[in-house]
Every structure is written in C-alpha cells, then in structure tokens.
Amino acid sequence: MESSKVIHAFYNDDEVLMDAVKAVKADHHHIEEVFCPFPVHGLDKAMGLAPTKLAITAFFYGITGLSVAIWMTNYMMIEDWPQDIGGKPSFSWMENMPAFVPIMFELTVFFAAHLMVITFYMRSRIWPFKEAENPDPRTTDDHFLMEIPVNNNEEELTELLARTGAVEINIVDKH
Amino acid sequence: MSHYEAPIREPLVLGDKSYHDITEDIAKPIEGKANKHWYIAFGISLAAMLWGFGCIFYTVGTGIGVWGLSKNIGWAWDITNFVWWVGIGHAGTLISAVLLLFRQKWRMAINRSAEAMTIFAVFQAGLFPIIHMGRPWNAFWVLPIPNQFGSLWVNFNSPLLWDVFAISTYLSVSLVFWWTGLLPDFAMIRDRAVKPFQKKIYALLSFGWSGRAKDWQRFEEVSLVLAGLATPLVLSVHTIVSMDFATSINPGWHSTIFPPYFVAGAIFSGFAMVQTLLGIMRKVTNMEDYITRLHVEYMNIVIILTGGIVAVAYATEFFIAWYTGSPYEYYTYLSVGAATGPYAWAFYSLLFFNILTPQLLWFKKIRRSFIWSFIISIFINIGMWFERFDIIAIVLSKGHLPSTWWRFEPTFVDVGIFIGTIGFFFVLFLLYARTFPVIAQAEVKTILKSSGEFYKKRREQGIPSKPAINVTSSTPEISVVVSEEEKEEKLNSLFSKVGIFDPSTQTADDLKKISGVGPKLEGVLNGIGLYTFEQVSKMTKQEYDLLDSITGSFPGRAERDNWAEQAKNLLNG
After folding, report:
1. Please, are residues B321 and B332 in contact by the beta-carbon 8 Å criterion?
2. Which of B448, B320, B268 is nearest to A13 (CA)?
3. Which residues 524-553 of B are in CB contact (within 8 Å) with A?
4. How far apart are CA B350 and CA B387, in angstroms?
5. Is the pLDDT of residue B130 over 80?
6. ∠ CA B82-B87-B89 to the nearest 5 degrees?
7. CA dihedral defined by B239, B117, B132, B388, rounded to 10 degrees?
8. What do you get for the CA distance between the two ends of chain A, in Å?
9. Phi and psi torsions of A85, nearest 5°
10. Distance CA B258, CA B95 (A)
11. Which residues of A touch B486 (CB under 8 A)?
C-alpha cells in the first residue's frame, strides 16, 4: 500500500511555490500535480508540462467553420434555389462571394470559439455536475498545493519540502 | 523580478491586501444579505420590467399598429432601442478581449461586470427585432433550416440576416468567454460555502473546477485565443449593424463611413454604460479598493478617444450633406434641414449630449472624479440614444416625395417597451451583483504583487515581494491524514456515546448559542451529525479529541470553551 501514499505540501505564496517546484524537480522527484488559486506564470514550464495545443485545434475548427459557411451559402443561394434579388442574380458563388463574407467570417469565429472551449472543457474534465477534485478548499483561496507520490521516502521528502517553505505537509492515503 | 512594474504607475489595488483579503472582499456581497437599497432598486426594476412585458403582450396580441409607426416610418423606437442596446453591449467584450491583447492590467477589475453588461444588453437588443417581426413565434424563420415552403432559404445577401448571424455569434461567444473566466471564481465561492444548498449551486456553476496547473495553462491559452477571436468579432457586429442602414438607398443612410463610425459610437456608449454601472456598483458592493480613480480615468480616456471619432464623423456627415448640393441630402439627420426642422430639439440634444459634454473630460480633475464621470456617462447614454433616433426617425420623416413626409410620434407602448427593457436589464444586473463574483478575483490576484499598493510601497523600501523562508521558526505542521475507514470508526465511537440525532422526533438546536461556535463551525458539527445541546452535553475529553481528529478544524476549542458545561446550562435554562 506504500505506493498509493502521496504528500500534500501547502504553500501560501506563488514565488515560494515556484522555487519549491524547481527545487523538487532538481532533486529528481516526480510532481504529480499542483493546485493553484490563480495562474502562476512559468509554473507549467517549471513542472515540465508540455505546451497546450488548444490554439492549434482552434485554427482547424475555424477552417471547418469557414468550409461550412462556403458550402452552406453555395448550396442554399446558388444550387438549391437560385433567386434574382434586386437585379443581382445568383448564378455563381464566386460572383456573389462579397455578400457572403460576413457569414463566412461569423461562422469561422463561431466554430473556432465554441469547439475550442468544448475541447478545453473535455480535456480538463470540467462540465456541469462534475465533482471538484482539488484536495483542499484552501487551494481556490490563497494556498497552493503540491502533490508528490511517496515511495518509502517520506522523511526525505518532508525534509526537502519543509526546507522550501511549505506551511503545511500532509501525508495522505490516495485511493 | 517577474513582478516588476515601474513605480511611476499608480496602484490598481488599494489597501494592505493579501490574497486571502481579495477572496474575502469578492465573496462578501454574495455571502452577506442584501441591504434595503438593493431591494428598492430591484423592486423598481422589476415593476418596469413587468410594465414592459405587458406592453409586449399588448403589441403581440393586437398588432404592430399600437406603435407610432406608419407606412413611411417603418422603423423608429424599436430599431433605435435595438441599436442602442447592441452598442452598449460592445464595451464588455472590448474590455476583456482587446485590452487583454494589449495586456492592460486595469481591465481585470472591470471585465467581469462589463461582460455581464454586454450579455444582458444583447438580450434586450434581441427582443426588439423579434417583437418587430409582429409574429415572434415565427422568429425561427431567420435560421437557415429546411421549411414548409419547399427549399426557400434565407437570403444571405441581406444585412438583416448578417445581423442574425453576427449577434447570435457575439452573444454566444461572449457568454462562453464570460463563463470560462467565471469557473475559478465560482470554485472559490463553492469551497468557502457553508450552507449545503449554496455549496451545491456553486459546485454546479463551477463545473467542478479544480485549478490544476494544466487547467490553468489551458485556461490562459483559451482566454488568449478567445480574445483574438472576439476582437474582430466585436468590430464586425456593429459594422454589420451599420450595414442595415449603409447598404440601403436612403440619403443619410447609404454612407460609407457608417461602419467605423458606428463601431466607435458603440464603444463610446458601451464605456459610458460601464461607467454608469460601476459607479453604482463600487459603492453598493464595497469594491472601492478595486475600482479606483485610475480605472475611471482610463475609461474616460477611451470615452474621449471614441467620442472624438464620433464627433469627426458627425462633422463629415454634416459637411458632405451640404457639399453634395443634392436636395435629397438636405434633410438627413445631420444637416441644416434637421437643425431648423421639427426635429431640431433632437438634433441639438444629440450635439449637446454627445459632442459637448464629453469635452469636459479633457480636464484631469473631472475625468478622475467619480461623480462627474457618473453624470457625464448618463449624458452620453442619452446622447447615443438620440443619435440612433435621429438617424432613423429624422431621415425617414422626409422621404423622396413630399407625399411620404410624416412625423413620428411614439405611443405609450413604444415608451413602455423601452422602459421595460431598461427594467429587465437592471433586474438581471442586480441579480448578478448578488450572486456572481463581480470581480475576476483569480485574475486580480495575479496582479496584486505587481500593481497592488501594499507591494508597491514595500518595493520602494527595497523589501522583496517574496516572503523570506525561515525554516527553524516556521517548521510546517506535518500530519498524517486519517483514511475514510478510520474516520467512520471514530464517528461510530463518538455517536455511541452522545447518541444519534433523529430528525423525525427531535428538533435541531441553535448550536451557535454555545460561546465559541460560529456559523462555520456549526456547519462542520451539523455536517458530521451533531445537532442538539443534549448530544454536546454528553461530550467529555475523549469525545473532544475524537471530534478534533475527525474534523481537523478548530482543534482544542471545544475543551477550552467547555462546550459540554455550556450545553448543559442551555438545556436547563
């Protein structure tokens, strides 16, 4: 059962936390997770997290939206029921394209924004009725919590964490 | 020195604040009770809203004929109000998106409320075209869906349809932008909540936000990309609204400067409305330390800039109308004809409210004054309403043929619906101010060290923002947290002594009567099953220790305050 134990180290300052993360990494310990009340710049790099690819997905969602808009305006205005509106007949999509620019733009933004946010929610597992997973309520207020798995090295870890300025250290059984 | 900011910059967060103080300040209006002023304001708004709904039902039930429209003036108050509300809705996304791209830190205190204002204003705006259709139950005909007329589709060449797409995209994107930013703040309220119902509601609203490092990384990227998408979006919306007029063949409407001029006007009116709302809100919710003179001044600078663009556009319109020499241009909304005709009062109101009063903001004293900014913002709100009224009603009142000339007079229904939307808007905003974190507290915490007054002063004295670590004196408390099974065992042994509370036969006592027990601790005690003085009175040293080891909160307090003795006295007394 030793391996399911983790250490929860609490910090109450973002700069102290950053130094602590660097110190723990330098000592070659694996940091399972850090819970923060607000974004700490550079924390992801210090923890060794890979950069997020959400912006790239947004680009492709935008392309999808643009394609949908082109297909939709072409199908509805040119192919399915072409009309002569105000002496401007609907013979070819290219010739009518300037009138479709607003629709193409809006759908690009619509698809990119919404699909990116949905991807974010799915990837970070946040949605209505989802139970929160932060181990301590203080982590949304003013405390930062670093979670480190224990492999028969409690003493060494607690000593290291105390040195980095942790204000509270708990050893917890994680199921 | 990641938190360095030039000392010459004024602080954005006043007072001696810690991260926890920010939490407390933002949570206070939600956790506290509303005062009398709130109820009075809410009552008035609700009455106005209901009156407006009555007028809407009357319109829909009887027909558009109850408005002051005629065959010559088919748009008047309704579209004026529509454009006015959409314009107001422009500041929110501008503040949160454009100012984010420009890395303006002062946006953080005001973006939440400005976005709320945007969303509520767009609701009001959307009402008008839908009622104006006359048969609002057919409103879905504007959607490109297969229908009963064979495949007769919507007309993608029409600016009115562009509007449908632009405004619904704007509303929905603003909504998810706003909500995503709200998640960490809802989580903060959730984790503080004492009442179970409140906790449940905020747990639902926060979507289970946990604040992992990876979540924050994604959160920041999503915010940045959404800002990049929303910036052209916000400009496109009012551009398209202006095309409702500019693509027509009416003199006074078919003007190529309308798109940039309308966008500037929208930002102008939106910032004025933000100024109005925040002027009230900072007082009511005690946010004086977060919404400061500096914020007011920055917003006033945006107002001068966009108001200046609007003034130049007016001058251009007036000059061009005269310079064309065309008789049809003689009675556009900015022309000699308008200045001397029956709508001269509307013409001069426009110039007074929109062009003259904002010039006061050139004086530093005035643009840093809360009360002056508030008054001027109200004037601009009125002025921007007149701008849309003039563009629509004055232009339409003198058509190409004298036989189409007509003077628009609003009926009580026109006025009633407008007042109703103002009421509806304030109903939503007042509810928001009581239930939502009105300031993006997670974001404000990130600028506390660079822009907070406390840290700025310390930096001047050469004290670093990072607290010193002193291991020998502040060795952390190291504890082994009990597992669930162990906790269960302890609870059983506790309740075997004090007895289990049976809600069907017993009533819960007010444990707060025990000195040393506050609402928070009472919640903890109720949470594990302690409800009555009788239970508490049976506790001894052994049970106190059990209680401490289970709850982990307020260790030693029960013994120190001798709860059992107190509970016995309360039972007998």
Report:
1. yes
2. B448
3. none
4. 6
5. yes
6. 100
7. -50
8. 10
9. -105, 115
10. 22
11. none
Written as one string, the DSSP assignment of B107-157 is: HHHHHHHHHHHHHHHHHHHHHHHHHHTS-GGGGGGGS---BTTBS----TT
Q: Do B2 and A42 touch, CB atoms closer than 8 A?
A: yes
pLDDT in tens, B288-298: 889 999 999 99
What's the pTM value of the predicted model, to 2 decimals? 0.84
DSSP B105: T
Report residue B1's pLDDT band, with 50, 70 and 90 as the boundaries.
Answer: very low
Contact B428, B123 (CB under 8 A): yes
- Measured distance CA(B469)–CA(B162) in Å, rounded: 60
Q: Do B2 and A85 touch (CB under 8 A)?
A: no
Spatial CA neighbour of B136 closest among B56, B32, B39, B234: B56
Q: Show the tokens assigned to B390.
A: 């003039």
Distance CA A86, CA A91 (A): 14
B61: tokens are 């039930």
* Cβ neighbours of residue B1 closer than 8 Å, sequence gap 6 or more: none
Residues of chain A in contact with residue B442, where contact means CB-CB under 8 angstroms, are 37-39
Structure tokens at B451: 């822009």
- Where chain A has pLDDT below 70, the residues are 1-3, 175
Nearest residue, CB atoms, A49 vs list B23, B203, B213: B213
B442-467 residue pLDDT tens: 999 998 888 888 888 888 888 887 88
User: What DSSP designation does A83 have?
Assistant: -
Mean pLDDT of B303-316: 94
Q: Cβ neighbours of residue B55 under 8 Å, at least 6 residues apart?
A: B412, B413, B416, B417, B420
Q: Whose structure tokens read 């399915």? A: A80
Q: Interface pTM (ipTM) of the complex?
A: 0.94
